[in-house]
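check these C-alpha cells.
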Amino acid sequence: MRHAATAAYLRELLLQPGRYRQRWAQYAERTRPGEINQLAVADVLAHYLWRNPRTTGDVDVLPRQLKDTVLRAISGRMVSKASLSLFIDAFDLASHDAELLWRLWEGSGRSRVQAGPRAMRPERSAALGPLQHQTLALHDHHYCGPDGMPDRQRTLHVIEATVDGLDRIPFRFDSADLTLELGQGCRGMSGPFRKITEVLYTTDILLAKPLERGDTLTLESGPFRKITEVLYTTDILLAKPLERGDTLTLEYWMIFHFAERPASDYRRASRSRMENVDIRVEFHPDMVPATIWWASWDGIEGDIVEHEAVSLDSQHSAHHYLRILENAVVGFHWAW
C-alpha cells in the first residue's frame, strides 16, 4: 500500500505543470497530456548521475538502463529507498514534496491522525449506504483565482476494492456549480448530478433557572430553526471493474462556476477511513489571504471544532498531510 501511495504522489508531481514536468519534457520528442514519458524521466536521472555519481558505473550510465527503475517507481511495483532518493535529488524536489514522499514511503505512525468528532449524522451516513472501496491515498489540490474565487481542483485518488465487481465509486459535493472532468482510471459519469436535500428543524430547550444536582425544572422552548443540508451526487465509472483487493488510481478535476462568492474555506469529509491524505490550497499571487488556518469541523454543516494558523509557502499555498483521516471533516479556512 505504501509503495502505491508513494508512486501515486510521484506521478502527480511529474505530471503537474511546472518545473518538475519541464525537467523531463525537455528530453521528450513529444508529450501527451496525462502521460509520463519514461525514457525522458530516465534521461533526467542519468544526467544527474553523470554529474553526481554514486557508484563508479554511474558516470557512463545510459538512460535506457534506468527505464526499469523509472517504471518500477511510477507504477508502484517497487519503490526502493535508493530510487526515491534519486528522484528527489535529480528533480530537485521542494522540501515539502520530498517530506511527503518520505512519509508515504515509510508508512509510519509518525504522521498525524485525524478522527472525529463526526463527518455527518449517523442517519445520513446510513442512508448513503456502505462504501465498497477504501482509500489508500488521496491528494486534493485546490486553486483559487485572482478574484479569490475557487477556480479548479485536481484530485488524485488511489482506491482498493473491498467487493468483487466494483465498477464505480460515488462522487459527492455540496454544490452543483462545477464541471467534473475525468482523467486516468475513469471512463465516465453515471449521469448528471442528483440533488440530495434534507431539512431539519431544531430548537434549544431553555431552563427556567440554573439547576444543581437534584433540582426540579420547568421547560420552555425557543422558536424552531430550519437546517437544510444539501449534497449533489453522481458516480464516477471506473476504467475497468475491480475485484476485491485490486487497486486503481483515479484522476479528476473540478472546474468551478460559482456565481456568488462561497465560504472562504475548503473542506474534505471522510465518513470512513482514508489513508495518506494530502490537502493543498493554492492562491493566486494577486489575491492571497491575510490569515489562513488548518481546521476541523463538527460535521459537514457544523461549526469549527479547532483550528491553528499556518503560513503560505513561496508558491502561495498551504498544505497538510494526514496519515489517517476517519469520520471527520478537515481542511483550510481563511480571511482576506
